[in-house]
Amino acid sequence: MDDWGISIHVCGSVSGSEYLRFDCFEDEPHYHYIHPTDDFQVWVPFDEGPNGPMLDWALDCLANRTQEMLRCSGGSYLADFVDLTRLGETCAAVARLARSLNNAKVRPEVAA
């Protein structure tokens, strides 16, 4: 893959199953609603025109719409148990790391 950028994965803490992924890539930014129990996903292209930079949009979604987005990906039972205080703390930490990597243009696989 020639495209690169920050990729943020949202997984269940018990099962480890992935439910959401935000691929904030330079050339083809997109996100996924992943339905792990049904073994399919919905790939959604991102339009920066009306939405602005994808990383900003993705971080806003994580902070403010995680529960709704989990419900769209078959994770309703998880959405009901989201600890909003911990979510806020985690989102702040993810935002700091993602912005730092993005500003440094560090490929995520190198930073891990």
How is this fold's topology laid out?
Blueprint: E1 5-11, E2 18-25, E3 30-35, E4 40-45, H1 48-51, H2 54-64, H3 66-72, H4 76-79, H5 84-104, H6 108-111
Antiparallel strand pairs: 1-2, 2-3, 3-4
Describe the protein in words.
With 112 residues, the chain is of the alpha+beta class. The chain has one domain. Helix content is 46%, strand content 24%. It has 6 helices and 4 strands; from the N terminus they run E-E-E-E-H-H-H-H-H-H. The protein has a 4-stranded antiparallel sheet with strand order 1-2-3-4. Strand 3 and strand 4 form a beta hairpin. Helix 2 runs antiparallel to helix 5. It is globular and about 35 Å long. The mean pLDDT is 89.
Radius of gyration: 14 Å
Question: What's the multimeric state?
Answer: single chain
Estimate the strand proportion. 15-25%
Count of all domains: 1
Overall 3D geometry?
globular
What do the pLDDT scores average to? 89
What's the end-to-end separation, in Å?
18 Å
Number of helices: 6
Low-confidence stretches: none
**Strand tally:** 4
